[in-house]
Amino acid sequence: MAYILRVPWWPLGPVAGAAVLLVLLAIAGAIFSLIMLIDCLKRPSSGFSNPLTKAGEHDKLIWAVAIVASFWFYYVGAIVYYFVVKRAKPTGAA
Prior knowledge:
It is a single chain. By secondary structure, this protein is an all-alpha fold. The chain has a domain at 30-43 and 52-86. 56% of the residues lie in helices and 0% in strands. α1 packs antiparallel against α2, α1 packs across α3 and α2 (59-69) runs antiparallel to α3 (76-86). The radius of gyration is 22 Å and the shape is elongated.
């Protein structure tokens, strides 16, 4: 009589859970990036003024390209945009 090797499914539970978590994180990152891209495109050019760039002429374009390009690199552009531009204090604030 041949023995049938049965593979228990319990070791695959954490692997499937990790895959679900990664998919959920990817979806959340994509939604966050889209929200940041929409904020970037709606924000007036004066909202991007930076001491390094005189009038912020091309900052809107640069941020939009960085956010779109970061879709393939762990959404880093959207995260940096959030902390540098969106949460930045206005220039007149103390």
